[in-house]
Amino acid sequence: IAAMQKKTFKKEDILIQFGDDGKEYFVLESGVLECKVYSEETKEVVVTKTITEGSAFGELALLYQTPRSATIIALTDCTAWVLDQMTFKTVIMSSAIKERNIRLQFVDNIKVFEKMSRYEKIKLLDGLEVQYFEENDVIVKEGDVGEYFYIIEVGSVECIKEEGQELIRSLSYGDYFGELALIEQEQKRTLTVKAKSDCK
């Protein structure tokens, strides 16, 4: 916090402009922002999401030294905490790199990814999202259309056939599930997967 600067923005102010060099990282304290990107498919600028208080943004251009990929505009008067590029690199980026290396080691141990190149695995990390489940939570419901592929990092799960509540198998660290429903569109889940313990 000591390294961050508090800034205020008026409604319709542009915090980030598409194509600009990234120089700042933002944490929104109050207000609402709108994120717009240019769609190559429709050749139009489209709104992808709104950003609300507590959200952080702007790190991608700093991490990868690429131009801004979106324009972010204030929908209301806003207050944000801002971290400059140099401080971001020395503080935040070192932490991000450490976390990325931990995740990369985890991916290296997953059999389904063993034939992927180092570069492909690093790109894969960008698409991974951490989700947490408590004991007895239903992660996947038999009959639902699949949207996610899961890899277990912590905990264990049970795969159950709803009819007769038959336990088909148990899975734990490094095991994965949900991939079949993603291979074919509109493919429905064939089993229910329930957390046997707290899971990540």
Automatic annotation (TrEMBL):
InterPro entries: cAMP-dep_PK_reg_su-like, cNMP-bd_CS, cNMP-bd_dom, cNMP-bd_dom_sf, RmlC-like_jellyroll. This is Cyclic nucleotide-binding domain-containing protein. CDD domains: CAP_ED (cd00038). GO terms for molecular function: cAMP binding; cAMP-dependent protein kinase inhibitor activity; protein kinase A catalytic subunit binding. One of its GO terms (cellular component) is cytosol. PANTHER family: CAMP-DEPENDENT PROTEIN KINASE REGULATORY CHAIN (PTHR11635), CAMP-DEPENDENT PROTEIN KINASE TYPE I REGULATORY SUBUNIT-RELATED (PTHR11635:SF152). Residues 1-109, 112-200 form the Cyclic nucleotide-binding domain.
